[in-house]
Amino acid sequence: MSKKVLITGIAGLLGSHFSRYLLSKGYDVVGIDDFSGGYKENLAEGIYCEDINLADLDAVDSFFKEQKLDYVYHFAAYAAEGLSPFIRKYNYENNLISSANLITSCINYDVKKIIFTSSMAVYGKENIPPFTEDLRPCPIDPYGVAKYAVEMDLKLANEQFGLDYTIIRPHNVVGIYQNIWDRYRNVIGIWIRKTIIGEPLSIFGDGLQKRAFSDMHYYNIPFEKVMTEFGGEIFNIGADKERTLLETAHLVQKCAKNFGFNPEIIHFEPRHEAKYAFSDHTKAKTLLGFRDNTDLELTINKMFEWALTQPIKTVNNMKYETSKKIYSFWK
Ligand SMILES: NC(=O)c1ccc[n+]([C@@H]2O[C@H](COP(=O)([O-])OP(=O)(O)OC[C@H]3O[C@@H](n4cnc5c(N)ncnc54)[C@H](O)[C@@H]3O)[C@@H](O)[C@H]2O)c1
């Protein structure tokens, strides 16, 4: 019998790609998504997905009771790191309480293993990149705090209840199906949307922040590999090649030309963020056979191609819980 796998956040970037990959490998895949950050159009054809907000423990419990799951990939989150100080409650409900509910249900229904996508955000700015998994986390915002809290909670759930788990810390993943209509996250997606609607590419500060962008495609194999192996381990996964945001914006400008656009770059005040953030992937390469062959120019071109076929979607403003020190760009 094929293994039954739940993917939370299945309508998002990671979920929509990984669900297709697992289906192609013969797994029985089901999903949960509340479509707060992902879209129904992203779902693999015919896949079973329930519209559940993971913050609702009763709904999560009923789903687990019915579905008899073997494995859980927990991707659902609102990953707007820079916005998280202005939406603390929403951030913790969505990223921490929701995860706690899922962990409780995994315990109650004897799930064999949960795989959790944490984030490079746990490393913060005290640590010097490239970050290795053994560094002591030191997050600098509520998003990173929530991710680190879930990591710690998984360790406790394992110690007390024997729940098996593996933690993946991805960073700067890109690809089609990414939400490009959210003004607070996914910088390359934001730039592609802005290009198409004739707006300049916005950069916080001088653009000399460094990040390493990787194509989602290269995550599938290591994600599958940790389903049954490497319990209790933490893996960084992502591209090795870091570049400045300014360089990345220039690359988007270059790709935009292929589609008849010529966007300018505009700078805003710097925001609260780690200047240099990229990871070391030796552990994933050694133990999971992870290889990243991201050709960022090719990925951005594919994203443009895809974005141009998408229906116009509304770009929503979040309801800020505090507007103190909110950046001019988000007013
Ligand atoms: N994309 C990246 O660069 C990146 C980097 C580091 C970590 N991660 C982590 O990987 C995971 C997946 O990221 P992604 O880029 O696919 O994000 P995404 O926003 O594309 O997908 C997340 C999905 O979760 C759903 N969701 C959010 N809150 C929910 C809730 N309370 N209940 C049910 N569904 C909910 C959204 O509707 C969305 O479809 C997240 O946990 C994110 O924090 C992503």
Secondary-structure element order, N to C: EHEEHEHEHEEHEEEHEEHEHH
> Going across the major beta sheet, what is the strand order?
3-2-1-4-5-6-11
The CATH class designation of the domain at 4-173 and 215-237 is Alpha Beta
The global form is: globular
Question: Could you state the CATH homologous superfamily of the domain at 4-173 and 215-237?
Answer: NAD(P)-binding Rossmann-like Domain
What is the overall number of helices?
Answer: 9
Arithmetic mean pLDDT: 97
According to DSSP, the number of beta strands is 13
- Beta-strand residue percentage: 5-15%
Q: Give every kind of bound small molecule, once each.
A: nicotinamide-adenine-dinucleotide
In short:
It contains nine helices and 13 strands. Helices cover 34% and strands 15% of the residues.
Can you put this structure into words, describing what you see?
There is one protein chain. This protein has 331 residues and is an alpha/beta fold. It has a domain at 4-173 and 215-237: 3-Layer(aba) Sandwich (Rossmann fold). Helix content is 34%, strand content 15%. The protein contains nine helices and 13 strands. The strands form four sheets. It has a seven-stranded parallel beta sheet with strand order 3-2-1-4-5-6-11, sandwiched between helices. A two-stranded parallel sheet has the order 7-10. Helix 2 packs parallel to helix 3, helix 5 packs across helix 9 and helix 7 (245-258) crosses helix 9. 46% of the residues are buried. The site of nicotinamide-adenine-dinucleotide has 30 residues, from helix 1 and helix 3. Nicotinamide-adenine-dinucleotide is lined by residues 9, 11-15, 32-38, 53-55, 75-79, 94, 98, 117, 119, 170-173, 179.
